[in-house]
Design a protein that fits this description.
A four-stranded parallel β-sheet has the order 3-2-1-7, with helices on one face. By secondary structure, the chain is an alpha/beta fold. The protein has five helices and seven strands; from the N terminus they run αβαβαββββαβα. It is globular, with a radius of gyration of 16 Å. Strand 1, helix 2 and strand 2 form a beta-alpha-beta unit. Helix content is 28%, strand content 24%.
Length: 169
């Protein structure tokens, strides 16, 4: 049993979420995305996934949930430390595709290889947070959570100057 879910439930009682953004949502079948789709229906949820095949599966996953996922918005967007064109590494294990070269992850995932390098347009975490806070239909409001389930999470956070818009990281 994954122990993160009870912690999320407790945290949601202590610091209720009005909006939760998940960077690196993957195909929607991971623990974070599943909890957000099923348990956090009182919150507005934004699921962000950069990899097109993972994003397509995420769309199908949410579509299969129907009304239960009506509070979820998805975006096919790459978040990076700088705005503009960046190298996106497609790894032999699709869920490990991202901004880091797969070779740098060999100590964690032996046999991981680079399948392809794509130049993708990226936005910064600040641009994402600014966009979410200025959404005329559903602004972020209070109780904003930010979950980063991709590498390099630390670099993305260090590059941000708008973390004051976030209540829980």
């Amino acid at each position: 049993m994954n122990t993160i879910i009870p912690w999320l439930e407790h945290l949601n009682v202590l610091m209720p979420s009005g909006h939760i953004a998940l960077v690196g949502a993957g195909n929607g079948k991971g623990i974070w995305a599943q909890w957000l789709a099923h348990q956090a229906s009182k919150s507005r949820v934004t699921l962000i996934e950069a990899e097109p095949l993972q994003y397509a599966t995420l769309q199908r996953t949410l579509n299969s949930l129907g009304e239960r996922a009506r509070h979820c918005e998805i975006r096919n967007t790459l978040i990076a430390t700088q705005q503009g064109a960046v190298s996106f590494f497609v790894a032999s294990s699709q869920q490990e595709s991202g901004l880091l070269e797969p070779q740098s992850l060999l100590s964690l995932w032996p046999n991981l290889q680079t399948e392809e390098i794509r130049e993708l347009s990226a936005i910064t975490l600040d641009a994402l947070l600014g966009d979410l806070s200025e959404d005329a239909e559903q602004p972020m409001g209070e109780g904003h959570w930010l979950v980063i389930d991709c590498l390099p999470a630390g670099a993305l956070l260090r590059a941000s100057s708008k973390l004051d818009l976030v209540d829980v990281v």
